[in-house]
Every structure is written in C-alpha cells, then in structure tokens.
C-alpha cells in the first residue's frame, strides 16, 4: 500500500511540474504576442510607414492621385 501511495504522489508531482512547464510556455507566447502587437501599433502611429504596412489605403484609393469626374444628378 505504501508503494502505491508513493507512486501516486510522484505521478501527481510530475503532473504538476508538467502543468507548470506548459504554463510557462503559454505565458512566454502571450508575452511575445503582446510585444509584437505593441510594436506593430507603434509602426501604425507613424503615417509614413502606414502606406507600406496597411493595404486598406489601396482599397480606399488614398494612394493614387487619380481624381474621377463627379457627375451630379438632380432629381
């Protein structure tokens, strides 16, 4: 009975140490993601780098200097 109890305790300790390792890995991943997010947000603050990083300006047509003629329709 005593051997069984010792084995259970050692298995529980191994499980706890495994969970602590997984927790450390998850915390590191979250920290790296936060640093990358903060860095990209800082890059988006500078207007000179937005046109190279963001494609939304191409969809909106902000980059091109072509001006279309406006047709007015009176009802």
Helix content: over 70%
Number of helical stretches of at least 4 residues: 3
Count the E strands: 0
Q: Give average pLDDT, whole number.
A: 75
Q: How would the global form be characterised?
A: elongated
Q: List SSEs in N-to-C order.
A: HHH
Range of strand content: under 5%
**Backbone CA Rg:** 29 Å
Show unreliable segments.
none
Q: Which structural category do the helix and sheet elements fall into?
A: mainly alpha
Describe the structure.
Helix content is 75%, strand content 0%. The protein has 75 residues and is mainly alpha-helical. This is YpfB family protein. Keywords: Membrane, Transmembrane, Transmembrane helix. It comes from Bacillus cereus. The chain crosses the membrane at residues 25-45.
Defining traits:
single chain; 75 residues; mainly alpha; 3 helices
Write a short abstract of this structure:
This protein has helices spanning 2-45, 47-53, 56-60. With 75 residues, it is mainly alpha-helical.
What's the structural blueprint in terms of helices and strands?
Elements: H1 2-45, H2 47-53, H3 56-60
Pfam families: DUF5359 (PF17313)
Transmembrane segments: 25-45
Keywords: Membrane, Transmembrane, Transmembrane helix
